[in-house]
Amino acid sequence: MQFDYIEENLIRLRQKIKRVCEVCGRDPKEIYIIAVSKTFPADAVASALDYNQLDFGENRVQEMLEKEAGFRDRIIHWHLIGHLQTNKVKFVVPFVFLVHSLDSLKLAQKIQQEASKAGKVVKCLIQVNTSGEDQKSGCEPKHVLKLVKEVSAFENIKLRGLMTIGRIMENPKDENERNVVRGNFRALKELYDEIGSLNIERVDMKYLSMGMTSDYDIAIEEGSNMLRIGSAIFGERK
Predict the structure, then answer these.
(1) What is the per-residue pLDDT across 49-72, written as a single tens digit (0 to 9) for each?
(2) How far apart, in Å, are the Cα atoms of 169 and each of 52, 182, 210?
(3) Which conformational region is residue 202 in: left (phi greater than 0), alpha (psi within -120 to 50 degrees), or beta?
(4) Are 163 and 101 contacting, i.e. CB atoms less than 8 angstroms apart?
(5) What is the CATH code for 5-234?
(6) In Å, what is the CA distance from 123 to each residue of 77, 145, 227?
(7) What CA–CA distance (Å, rounded) separates 29 from 6?
(8) What pLDDT was estimated at residue 135?
């Protein structure tokens, strides 16, 4: 299977991000692109890597483990963006660049335990459920500051920011739906700024992970500096 189209998709995506940044007065260099490679084969990852895309996001630990094994001789940053079960923590601790989905004290305790055993410091984002949807993981906004303070006590976890998934839009051009997503993102940015202003030890609000293929323009306008992009890079999933 040929993945030559990935280069064109990456170029097009970076151009679009640049245009959005120009309109809202931001520097495109401060936007990190996480290429969400879930369900796509290792060859697709290799193709994107060849075009200087270093950050890759996976939803499932098992799939990330299978792909990671084939790239140990390359510089590559693996991001776990899906729900992390406590019994899978030990598998990702040795190599994960960033866990986007820390959403409970129980999970933090397990990450601390496994990271301490491995002599690692694991960088994490707190996942926040800003859309209030029951089917989504994430800490409730009102409990985020409490969780941040609890996690900051763990020596083997470095909190680097916050993550959210906006409400999925049925029609990405519908202004009402876009405004709902905008509200989800704005709520996270407010939390991010508030926590950043408190100068909590071992908490460095560097990454604001929000925005996917359907809504990354809104996310950039609302302050995101980390986008999780799948289909705009790899194509539609079967």
Answers:
(1) 999 999 999 999 999 999 999 999
(2) 30, 11, 15
(3) left
(4) yes
(5) 3.20.20.10
(6) 12, 17, 17
(7) 20
(8) 83
